[in-house]
Model the fold of this input.
Amino acid sequence: MTQSELHIERCKVVCLLILTMLALATALYFASGILVPIVLAWLLSSLLLPIVKFGNRYRIHSALTAAVIIVMMLVLLLVLTDFLAQPAAELLKELPANLQTLKEFVATGGGAFGDLQRVSQEVENLTEIEQVTKGAEPLAVKIKEPDVVSGLMTESLPKFTGYLIITLVLTFFLLSANQHFLRRMVRLNSTWRGKRQTVYIATKIQRDISRYLGMVTIINTCLGLLTAGYLFLLEVPNPLFWGALAGMLNFVPYIGAMATAALLTMVGLTEFPVMADALAVPGIFLILTTLEGQFITPTAVGHSLRLNPVSVFLGVIIWSWLWGVPGALMATPMLATIKILLANLPGIARLQMILKLGSPPTAPRNLSTISRDGRGPES
Done:
């Protein structure tokens, strides 16, 4: 094969790869209605699987433990919805007024914003003078805007209910039938060495995913509690709502913290007349989220599960474009899951280098030292 023919073949491979990626992105976009609850159920089952395994140690059936978990999740969801629905509704209703207050605050603060506001007012006055000169009376038009809360309930509630039902049902089946999937995977191997290797890899993947999701969930919950605590001390209205929002948005790296800081800035400027008090509301949160992102989370998840910041940022952008808000919330857990899979599945561990700089972990060479439950070398 000549050099030109080799170059043509490479171009064909690249074009085929691009077309495949475009087709995959299109499929993910149009199938978001069914893929979002499936992926969310799989992530939840990975997070809650250690609880099911803990029950199995005491001979509690997986289906019973999974049913108890689903019921507790429903109760927790209902309690949080009842507790946070009223503050969220009030926030949405007061949002236009708060934005107007913030606009007036910036306009009266002098500087470039004040000059721009004064120029706009002068142009408006000139327009009114011209209309009066021509004898034309200005026509008052009043637009009745629909209620934001009722619009969200009408449009989003059926979709959210469908997502919730599919997610909870699928999570139950994934938790209750986890051991059945593992046994079927083991049966695909004809040799004892292959069976032990399958058990080791599957168990390590489950353990790493559960550990990562569990640590991130605990850290974000603590961040939300700390945020609610200092907002309560500053006498900010609805501190628990803002704490819950901060903890949830922190699942979205970088963008979530910036969005929370922007919202807290608006709250501070509308609630406190003194600039120092107003800036203390987002300032303390920025200190907390900086400590969490730079020190606490890297230490808690460990070096082997750290993600490349560029991959994380691109992942958030891509998944939010494909699946909206659910995609942005699940982007980092999905990226960490893919990294763990690449690091443990034979033959494709090199792709892990794209997600994190460093050498991927390898399975032990002597598989005879792996215990029967797949936890690792026997002591």
Remarks:
- The first helix runs from residue 3 to 30.
- The mean pLDDT is 78.
